[in-house]
Amino acid sequence: MNMTGIIIKGIGGFYYVKAADNNVYECRARGLFRRDGITPMIGDRVDISDNTIVKIHERTTMLTRPPVANVDTLLLVAAAAEPEPNTLLLDKMSINARQCGIETMLCINKSELADRHDLAEIYESALSCVIFTSAKEGRGIDELRELLKGRVTAFAGLSGVGKSTLLSLITNRSLETGSVSEKIMRGRHTTRHVELFALDEGGFVLDTPGFSSLETENIDADKLWEYFPEMAQAQGRCRFRGCSHINEPDCYVKKLLEEGKIKPSRYESYKEIYGRLKLVKKWEKK
Fold this sequence. Notes:
Blueprint: E1 3-11, E2 14-19, E3 24-29, H1 31-35, E4 45-49, E5 52-56, E6 62-64, E7 67-69, E8 73-79, H2 87-99, E9 103-109, H3 117-123, E10 129-132, H4 141-148, E11 152-156, H5 163-171, E12 197-198, E13 204-207, H6 252-258, H7 264-279
Parallel strand pairs: 3-5, 8-9, 8-11, 9-10, 11-13
Antiparallel strand pairs: 1-2, 1-4, 2-3, 4-5, 6-7, 12-13
Helix pairs in contact: 2-7
């Protein structure tokens, strides 16, 4: 009898599928997937029969590092302090999510350490949602659960910002967490493999080790502005067609910057990434 489910973990050629009957089955994939160059991914919606994956349903989204399919939401997790938020990294990760067609939210954790409404103001118009949490004090956890209800959500951010602690709280299970290095105020990586964890309210969450190291070299520099939603209203309003929004006069993006409608840190990220993209030759892009 065929059942439909979702791959929550894959280890050593075995795939663990949480099926519609709420049980988890250890499965192998049919050989024809290998023949056709298809590799099952965490998050794949699949049909199984006799502990064998017989069909992989069409994917709606796909991350490549880590390889995860059908992610609805990327939750960027930053710490209010310890470690200090890295806005360039947050911007890179939001760009990667937009490339994949994934909605992006920001969670500012460790809010008991500092008032970071300045950080929230940067992203309130750039991302779909900003939420404050304190895993230590339990604040904002119920609101976070409600936001993630019914979604497949990937957590991303520097180690030490509290991703694993938040995941433990919202999944009601103990996950390995890491301390923050006092010397460099950066977290030590603790996640060993990618796994989906079911939420009681419906939906799944996962950590994304390695996602913070993604780069953006496969974007054309002249199209980079499209990944900054607050720049969208500048389309066609600059003096020069193909404006880079950096050195040209009568640039509408710079006008928005002066009016405070584009935040300085977002514009600095744009310039930094644009400069790097200009150094990448077209044949080096994916």
